[in-house]
Amino acid sequence: MLISDGTMSRIQTTFSRLQAAGRKALIPYVTAGDPRPGITVELMHALVKGGADIIELGVPFSDPMADGPVIQLAAERALAHGVSLRNVLEMVAEFRQTNTETPVVLMGYANPIEAMGYPVFSAAAVAAGVDGVLTVDLPPEEARERVAVLKAHGLDPVFLLAPTTPVSRLAAVAELASGYVYYVSLKGVTGAATLDVDSVATKLAELRQHINLPIGVGFGIRDAQSAQAIASVADAIIIGSRIVQEVEAGEAGLTERVSAFLSGIRAAIDMARA
Questions:
Q1: Which residues are catalytic?
Q2: By the 8 A CB rule, do 243 and 30 touch?
Q3: Which CATH number goes with the domain that contains 32?
Q4: Angstrom distance (rounded) from CA 67 to CA 87
Q5: What is the model's pLDDT at position 191?
Q6: What is the reported pLDDT for 101?
Q7: Which of 28, 48, 192, 220 has a CA-to-CA distance to 70 between 20 and 30 Å?
Q8: Where are the alpha helices (H) located in the chain, listed in sequence order?
Q9: Whole-prediction pTM
Q10: Does 4 fall in a domain?
Q11: Residue 129 falls inside a structural domain
């Protein structure tokens, strides 16, 4: 989306740059505060070093209904440290002290934002350096007023689409979303394993008839092979549970492992240039 001064958002700038180069976006996910709050910013920088174009930063929530066991446990670990939405914004602000280019999208659930209030949250998020917000349990039919507040502050509202999303909802998402949309490639929760590239390609072609935004694909992408296959049809590769598994494996060498893993994914999707 365009900011109030007429400039493009960081997300739009990133996709424009990648499209001009014939490249696909790499969007990794980590849960803020996992395995402890003090390492999150270091992890974010490790993701950038590994080739991340945009970072999805999970806001820990007590009932993450769309997430599988891996990310559920990550949220539990973060919540055990008392990590709140305000703490997550503080982490983004710290990240911005040395990185002013990589877009950050907060991914989470409506309750923490509702508790803070959308105007207060939006102002605080922009001040911290957040670029977009993906609220898993906020359907577009109920989002209009909330999206208006986000957009008024220059935040991109990112929406989820699924294989079962009806055409009527596509129209609502097309009207409200900005930045990019997140296509859930599977019927299930994060971390599921079965991925049908042909069906994803068919669905993306249908979605592009209604939505004029970059489409990122997530759920089920776990390795370089699956990332490269999806990169041949999507605008962005979103990968979360596999990275969170590296976090779960322990802090010893964590940032190096995460950066190295993502570098392999980066190399694979760069072989699937447009």
A1: 56, 67
A2: yes
A3: 3.20.20.70
A4: 21
A5: 44
A6: 97
A7: 48
A8: 10-20, 40-49, 69-80, 85-96, 110-116, 118-128, 144-152, 167-176, 197-207, 224-231, 241-248, 254-270
A9: 0.94
A10: no
A11: yes
